[in-house]
Amino acid sequence: MKILVANCGSSSIKYQLFSMTAERVLARGLLERVGDPSARLHHSTDAGRHELDVYAPDHSSGMKIIFRILADPEKGVIKSIYEINGVGHRVVHGGEAMIDSCRVDNRVIAIVRGNFDLAPLHNPPNLAGIEAAMEVLPDVPHVAVFDTAFLSTLPKKAHRYAVPADWYEGHHVRKYGFHGASHKYVALRAAELLGKPADRTNLITCHLGNGCSMTAVAGGKAVDHSMGMTPLEGLIMGTRSGDVDPAVVLYMLGRGLSAQQVDAALNKSSGLLGLSGVSNDMRDLLALSHKDGDPRAADAALAVEMFVYRIVRYIGSYYAILPGLDAVVLTGGIGENSVPVRAMIVDQLARLGARLDEARNGQTVNGRAGQITADGSALGVWVIPTNEELMIARDTKRIIGSVVPRY
Ligand code: AMP
Of these residues, 46, 105, 147, 326, which one is catalytic? Predict the structure, then answer.
């Protein structure tokens, strides 16, 4: 079985073609600057890498270019696009209706469209990608895999905000959560590595990349999560503030900023970038924080310290609400690679019984999975590289094989 996974952003399409027999990636690529005269396709297979200037004025033409190269006699990996058995589409917002991945039909399309307000930057291009791929392969099942679906099990006490009830009832204001495919993938993988059935595993999964989120998982199900109605809530991120007093927004509006300026400030110039004034990249900040004599070193160090502090604070609160804790899981660019940040997190979890194994921490990089705490540590901290595309491919295969609608 071959499954194509597509992730459409406003000006890009990422894709991976999987052979599901051994869950192997046959081809992967990125079409960037869709809608711009300088659109470019980066396509790679086991046989080589290709960089091509292409004409992709919209998602529909972009998707056709991708299907064409997949079946190209020289650069492709399949003889015909009809070898593709299903297409899995990443969709950011499924709202309350979508509690699982789901085969795309008119109702699902209406739900994705109905959530444009909640995810104005993501759902419209996600839907454009679905429609473009369905145009090329109308007789193949298409599956929407929602970033929010894994978080749909959050109980009311975790997902409601204490605001007037009609904000929820009339305006859908609640916590939805994001990064669902990543949290689900690492939660399942953690259960496997721990040798426990997934539905009896209690975890705190931390996706620490440019976007950061954390999920409390009880018996394999998400019971709390750090992102909110939008991805802005929760942890400190590359350029997003995470939690701030909502009155700060009103105060800054009163100081003369427009709503758009406050939105841009909180989403694009806050977080590690806002605190350091230099970079949203953890590598830059770690390097800078150790530069003697550099006047920016103290701010960079503070950004790292606050990043870790917020994570530890969330872990503490999730520890308190979970029925038990089998492991803390770190993933995403920082979780998978940043040895010093991981060391800081584990050191600050000493009161919960975590003891760092420095050698393990140093070795568990470059896509390796493993425990970074010492044997006998009362709390285990694991690094598990995420694989959202594979999770989408697996979900697509599962949904194609089932007959029950998932909404
Ligand atoms: P992601 O969004 O998951 O691709 O993660 C991207 C972020 O991971 C970057 O912004 C970096 O801050 C961080 N990152 C990647 N590699 C490293 C590393 N070796 N050390 C520290 N941070 C890293």
Answer: 147
